[in-house]
From TrEMBL:
Organism: Liquorilactobacillus oeni DSM 19972
Domain (DNA polymerase III beta sliding clamp central) ranges: 136-250
Tagged with keyword Transferase: yes
Function as written in the Swiss-Prot or TrEMBL entry: Confers DNA tethering and processivity to DNA polymerases and other proteins. Acts as a clamp, forming a ring around DNA (a reaction catalyzed by the clamp-loading complex) which diffuses in an ATP-independent manner freely and bidirectionally along dsDNA. Initially characterized for its ability to contact the catalytic subunit of DNA polymerase III (Pol III), a complex, multichain enzyme responsible for most of the replicative synthesis in bacteria; Pol III exhibits 3'-5' exonuclease proofreading activity.
A GO molecular-function annotation: DNA binding
Residue stretches spanning the membrane: none
Similarity comment: family membership: Belongs to the beta sliding clamp family.
Top-rank taxon: Bacteria
A GO CC annotation given for this chain: cytoplasm
Any Pfam family hit: DNA_pol3_beta
Official protein name in the record: Beta sliding clamp
Amino acid sequence: MKFTVNRAAFIKSLTDVQRAISTKTTIPILTGVKLKLEAKGLTLTGSDADVSIETFIAADDNNAELQIEEPGQIVLTARIFSEIVKKLPEKTLTFKVTENYQTEITSGSASFTIRGLDANNYPRLPEIDAKERLTLKGDLLKQLIGQTVIAVSTQESRPILTGVHLVIKNGELLAVATDSHRLSQRKITLPEAKEANYDIIIPGRSLSELAKMIPEDTETVSLRISENQVLFDLGNTTFYSRLLEGNYPDTERLIPKTAETTIEFNATDFLSAIERASLLSHEGQNNVVKLVLDTPGKKATIYSNSPEVGNVEEELKFQNLTGNNIEISFNPDYMKDALRSFGQTTVTVAFTLPLRPFTLVPSEDHEHFVQLITPVRTF
């Protein structure tokens, strides 16, 4: 096996597949990256058995400057191989496998020899037998992931909540994540998928890695879903993830349908105020911020008190306030995550009772995106 390639293009592909490689895997060969060289190009593969990423460098890709001399395949320890490639001095590198899986990597005056593993022992990637292919806009998928993964659970005690629940039916995709303290729900229309009917749970970690890999200029991402796997096609890169097994909780009933008090904020201004208040809340034991809404007086005030450090009080700017007076306490980190997911827009926050969950929605689009936060009892 022997080839020469542009180092920058190779590093990009190597970085993508490394997202799937874990040093904690119980299968030693999965700490490596698989390289397979054929006449049509070079395929790099990384996997931790849950997530698998495969990327292809075509022989006719001018940017990659791939010169194929002798086809073959090898598995190399990803961490050390990646470090070597990144430190090489020239803009191209030459890669050659000799007998006993000895691998020579040369660039300019630098030459490394590392030992590889037999690629025939590398596990095969999952077979996706689904014929139906769904298409999503790249930027929309990236946004949907960013808006929902913030609410997935990090607690392995309820594995099902570590994923994002996707329901595709009637030409609509519904994505929901909750860790039982907060919830994020986003809907997007898929007019061309009116006949599709899927109900799956994708691990939050998988989606986070996928979002990092979607380039800004990606027009569309296609996905295919099988019984226990989902495959995302990003052009020259394919991303496989296992699906979580089990039934996701019925989250629709958690979202209040009515409100006793509503207030409209500029999301960016409100986020800045929460960040200021959390400077002191983080110093205390409870990490709680209190919001007080005085409807007759048309006042909204935020408080945070840390007995060890001090307290903060700030009167907030808002666009509209209706309903009953209310005092409500919450975790400011949940609120910051929620507000960041809205970007530059006006947000309507709707409350029922001081100890009942409250919602945040974009003021101009109540139907397609909602964040829900459970208050904190402080008495």
